[in-house]
Amino acid sequence: MIRWKTAGILLASVCMLAGCGTEQQTGMQDGTYTAQMSEYSHGWKEYVTITVKNGEIVAAEYNAENASCFIKSWDNAYMNNMKTAMGTYPNEYTRYYAGQLLGKTAVPEIDALSGATTSAGNFRRLSQAVTEQAVKGDSTIVCVEPQGD
């Protein structure tokens, strides 16, 4: 009888010390995660994909694709038109924004690039959604609704 009581006390002690599996994950879990806009805008659907290792973002991609899965930053005609009109272009601003996530353990303040401020807003919202997925360890693609005007 005493052995059972001792075993019960030991088991209760171990559960209290270990938390019996109730410990909550507070940082991002290792893996690859993607968030994308739920709708196309001007023919493009933006997305952010991150890879997390040891709780830190080690790779990040921000881009957009059309219905044919063609990547926006590869579109030279679009690049030339946007560069002339806005002073920047997708291959420049997507790398600029994605670079702000590298080495981070949470979404940092995002510095907007002149000429790509709408994309900055979408990038902020996509980054927030993708890091929330990383905290949960949920690698399903999360869709982000466009911001209402």
Structure summarized in a few sentences:
By secondary structure, this protein is an alpha+beta fold. Helix content is 39%, strand content 19%.
Word description of this protein:
By secondary structure, the chain is α+β, with helices and mostly antiparallel strands. Helix content is 39%, strand content 19%. The protein contains four helices and four strands, in the order αβββαααβ. The protein has helices at residues 2-18, 76-86, 90-99, 117-136; strands at 31-37, 45-53, 56-65, 142-144. The chain has a four-stranded mixed beta sheet with strand order 3-2-1-4. The radius of gyration is 22 Å and the shape is globular. It starts with a helix and ends in a 5-residue tail after the last strand.
Write the layout of secondary structure elements.
Layout: H1 2-18, E1 31-37, E2 45-53, E3 56-65, H2 76-86, H3 90-99, H4 117-136, E4 142-144
Parallel strand pairs: 1-4
Antiparallel strand pairs: 1-2, 2-3
Average pLDDT, all residues: 84
Instruction: State the shape.
Output: globular
Largest sheet: 4 strands, mixed
Q: How many beta-strand segments? A: 4
- Please estimate the helix content: 25-40%
Strand content: 15-25%
What is the spatial order of strands in the main beta sheet? 3-2-1-4
Radius of gyration: 22 Å
